[in-house]
Amino acid sequence: MVDLWMPSATRHALGNEGAMDGGPARAVWHITSNSKDWTFTNELGWFTGGGKAVAPHLLWDPFTGQIAQFFPADSRSLSLENDGSVRTNRTGKYCVQIEIVFTAGETVGGKKYATVRDTPCKGLDGIMAWLRSLGIADTWPGGPPTAFARDTVSLDTWLHQGGHYGHHQIPGNSHVDPGPMPNLFTSAPSPSKPATKPKVSLAHVVYAAKHDPAAAQGHTSYKSEVLLVEKALHAEGLLDSQWVDGSYGSKTIGAYSSWQRRLGYTGSDADGIPGKTSLTRLGDKHGFTVTS
Ligand SMILES: [Zn+2]
Prior knowledge:
The chain is of the alpha/beta class. The protein contains 8 helices and 10 strands. It has 2 domains: 160 residues, Peptidoglycan recognition protein-like (Lysozyme-like), CATH 3.40.80; 93 residues, no CATH class.
């Protein structure tokens, strides 16, 4: 038996349920994009009040991990426009729509956030586990979202391919959300992990980065530390999974350099060789502790 209501979500049933049309199960990601109020409470009030007619299944705050659910998974929700005669909200066995409480450029705790990918994504693991339990495949039929721009898939793709979509990809719709997303298919950062974080030595990783990968490979402990760094870079969407191999080669250097630039470093400060601050920031987000 699947749970049609996500067990850890707060239930705010709106009634007004509608049957699905069948076909492969899918999820559709949105952001709330509110110019005035960026809080979960505000969006919850909207979707249970004036915005009932456009409510999704889930409302998720990636900063606090709060999740509310408005419809059971086997009902359509209401955040999509129809595509002509296609009742888009009803496509698939399930079409679970998720509104992320996020606005591009919003400030939280004094820090400005450009994309959902930059947030702590608190609670994402739980959402993904629930979506997988509904049989929603770990794939983006139209590719993962990379920009706030339309990237519409064909109607044939939408009707016949299950998995994950962004609102910007749905035929008959005009929105450009959700913008760049975290990698949903590796385990997401979970700040609630126990205190037994693995350790990564800055010196070991710098050694691996500066030497011929083959030479560094000999140090098996270095290899496992490099792997942790590569997994984190992969989770950030900066390194292809084929290069997550424990070898700090040119692909890893390039990916780490992108990480440094994302933190605001430029020039030789973004050369792909880890420094204490950039590596600590990566470890804080992806569950490892940095030692000297
Ligand atoms: Zn949307």
